[in-house]
Amino acid sequence: MELPRFHRLRGPFYRLEGNACAACSLRFFPPRPVCPACRGNGLPSFAFSGRGTLYSWSRVLQPARGYASMAPYLVGMVRLEEGPLVSAQLADADGVDLTIGMPVEMVTRRLRDADEHGYIVYGYKFRPLLRETRKQP
Amino acid sequence: MRDVAIIGVGQTSVGEHWDRSLRDLAVEAIASARQDAGVDRVDVLFVGNMLSGELAGQENLATCVADAAGLLPIEALKIEAACASGGAALRAAFLTVASGAHDFALAVGVEKMTDILTDGVTSSLALAADADYEAAHGLTFAALNALLMRRYMHEHRARHEDFAPFSVNAHRNAAVNPRAMYRQPITVADFVRSPVVADPINILDSAGICDGAAALLVCPATEARRARRAPVRITGSACATDTLGLAERRDPLLWQAVADSSRLACEQARLKPKDMDLFEPHDAFTIVSVLTLEASGFADRGSALKLAAEGRLAREGDIPICTLGGLKGRGHPVGASGAYQLVETVLQLRGEAGPAQVKGASIGMAQSVGGSGSVAVTHILQV
Question: CB-based contact (8 Å) between A122 and chain B?
Answer without folding.
Answer: no
